[in-house]
Amino acid sequence: MGRRQTLMERYKIQMKAYRKKKMKVDNTPFLPEDGVVYIMDSLNPEKPMRAVVLKTRTKQHRKIIESIACPVCGNAMEWDSKWEGFICEKHGKRAIYEIVKQK
To answer: What distance in Å separates the CA atoms of residue 26 and residue 29, rounded to the nearest whole number?
Structure first.
């Protein structure tokens, strides 16, 4: 067992956890309200192309995109939070597609 914490120490620990949680960046790919997703190749940014959503899941009443069909080969691409995009490595070089908003 440890010693009892004072109110000030407990408050400092709570505020430290709150700041840490607040600084966390969330780049989860949510499905738009209309259900239409546009992606763009980050290595060759031309015009946005419409994507086919293969798999979604629901979290806190919002739909999260789990996989999208690759526009080149048609295979499923998974979300990579490090690159903040969908990555396909099936056709030669790595292709990174990021979600963009259609204007």
So the answer is: 9
Q: What is the pLDDT of residues 34-74, one digit of tens each?
A: 889 999 988 888 889 999 999 999 988 999 999 999 988 88
Domain regions of the chain by residue span: 37-100
- What average pLDDT does the structure give for the chain? 89
pLDDT digits (tens, 9 = 90+) for 59-69: 889 999 999 99
Instruction: Give the pairing of strands 85-88 and 95-100.
Output: antiparallel
The conformational region for residue 84 under phi > 0 = left, psi -120 to 50 = alpha, else beta, is left
For the record, the structure tokens of 103 come out as: 């204007």
E-strand ranges in 27-94 read 37-41, 49-51, 53-59, 62-69, 76-80, 85-88
